[in-house]
Write a structure and sequence with these properties.
Strand order of the largest sheet: 6-10-7-8-9-11
Number of helices: 17
Structural class: alpha/beta
Radius of gyration: 24 Å
Distance between the termini: 31 Å
Largest sheet: 6 strands, antiparallel
Oligomer: single chain
Helix content: 40-55%
Strand content: 5-15%
Length: about 450
């Protein structure tokens, strides 16, 4: 089934009707700019916040309805998997696959929905002029030809951030070989499975089970702390998993398995300067026949000192625990048998046994409070900011902290929040926190009117 074709626009609205654009975009900043731009240009905008909204609006006003909608503008940069599901749902509607369509993408992931690579795209950041030009071209200037196909009954092979890194490494080392997305996903899953297999192990009796909606993680950790429990706490939240090893009133190790690369051990090794990113990528792409965790593989390969591994594990444990404390639904279970784990042994020997549980809870709850204060102003990983140089000059750089100056120097209207996090060797939340302060002080602003691409 054809997805969308710029030259095959389906049913046109009557001559006296305003042309309509079905617009799906969860990014609040882009949403405001695009809505205003399209409406000022004379388009009627049908804004969909959810998949159900998109299907309902397209059913009523699309080619199978009154024909008001003549184009689809779909964000695929914030959450490619959700956007892929929205697209697949829309193309099943009568004649909706004949609509011209435009995908909003990011520079980090220019082809977020496999099978729709030939659709016109807008890469963040984009200007009002670029938006209008792309919409006009998709409606009038492209030759009539089917651009892509997708089976609506099959889930689209959308890469996660980690899978994109595997894909990039494979392309670098196997430049003459075409590797299907399914193979990339299989390789990534197999390597992740080997690295994270210990997350599923429950070597011992389960002495506690809890529903995180009824009993939040901070209460579970406080209870384990009060009883000086020793063992492994495993948490599940949808497809994501967490593992927290506790003992002697400390968190020894905390690990995460899911799509958030910020919480992987590699980020903390790179951030501390223990391992170079290119060396790490080339190393993890190979499968370990012994099934060792990544950290111990690096130590055994003499790419990392045991003391440095222990330091990175503590940094990871702090960040992962803060992240897990935000899970307000899911399940938790505690196994009382202490794990015989080389990574745990490293923190016991070289990192004072881990983080004090009470300290980890305080850090996490402070983080939740800060996120609540930022609210909808909290930065997304693909958001781009620009400096207010006039205000900065008026204020003077001497009043800014070193971290604020470091981020400010990298804010240029092109670097996304994720790129800022990589370049400053810190996490996206740390960057978001700094950007929130700078934004509130009118020293930076989101790229609402960015440079045209």
């Amino acid at each position: 089934m054809r997805i969308l074709s710029p030259g095959m626009t389906g049913r046109r609205p009557a001559a006296d009707k305003t042309p309509g654009v079905l617009y799906y975009d969860p990014n609040a900043t882009t949403l405001k700019m695009a809505l205003a731009t399209l409406r000022m240009a004379g388009y009627e905008v049908f804004h969909a916040r959810t998949q159900a909204d998109a299907v309902s609006l397209c059913s009523e006003h699309g080619p199978g309805g009154d024909g008001s909608i003549v184009a689809l503008l779909l964000d695929a940069s914030v959450d490619p998997k959700t956007s892929s599901r929205v697209l697949r749902a829309l193309i099943q509607l009568p004649d909706a696959d004949q609509l011209p369509g435009i995908l909003i993408t990011s520079t980090n992931n220019p082809t977020p929905i496999p099978g729709a690579e030939l659709l016109p795209t807008l890469s963040r950041p984009f200007s009002s002029e670029t938006l209008l030009r792309t919409v006009k071209e998709s409606l009038t200037d492209h030759p009539e030809a089917p651009l892509a196909t997708v089976d609506p009954k099959e889930p689209a092979a959308v890469f996660t951030a980690r899978e994109r890194r595997f894909d990039a490494v494979l392309r670098q080392h196997l430049a003459q070989t075409t590797i299907p997305p399914t193979t990339v996903r299989a390789i990534a899953a197999e390597i992740d499975g080997a690295d994270d297999a210990h997350l599923d192990r429950t070597d011992g009796p389960v002495v506690l089970r809890a529903d995180l909606a009824a009993c939040h993680l901070e209460h579970i950790l406080a209870m384990l702390d009060a009883s000086s429990a020793e063992g492994v706490l495993t948490l599940r939240h949808g497809p994501a998993r967490g593992r927290v090893v506790v003992g002697a009133n400390r968190i020894r190790v905390a690990e995460y398995q899911g799509d958030d690369e910020d919480l992987k051990l590699g980020r903390f090794l790179i951030q501390a300067g223990y391992v170079h990113e290119s060396d790490l990528d080339a190393f993890v792409i190979s499968k370990d026949p012994q099934g060792r965790p990544l950290g111990m593989r690096l130590v055994d390969a003499e790419m990392l000192r045991l003391e440095d591994l222990a330091s990175a594990l503590i940094d990871q444990a702090r960040e992962v625990t803060c992240h897990l404390l935000g899970w307000r639904d899911g399940t938790a279970q505690f196994v009382s048998t202490p794990p015989r784990d080389s990574m745990v042994a490293a923190t016991i020997e070289h990192a004072e046994g881990g983080i004090i549980i009470a300290e980890a809870i305080l850090d996490g709850l402070r983080r939740l409070d800060e996120r609540a204060v930022m609210g909808i102003d909290a930065s997304r990983v693909d958001d781009v900011y620009v400096r207010n140089d006039e205000q900065i000059a008026r204020l003077g750089r001497e009043v800014l902290t070193r971290d604020e100056l470091t981020v400010l120097e990298l804010v240029n209207g092109r670097n996304s929040v994720k790129e800022l996090a990589r370049k400053t060797k810190t996490g996206t939340f740390g960057v978001a926190r700094i950007l929130h302060r700078l934004s509130r002080s009118n020293l930076v602003r989101r790229g609402v009117v960015p440079v045209a691409v």
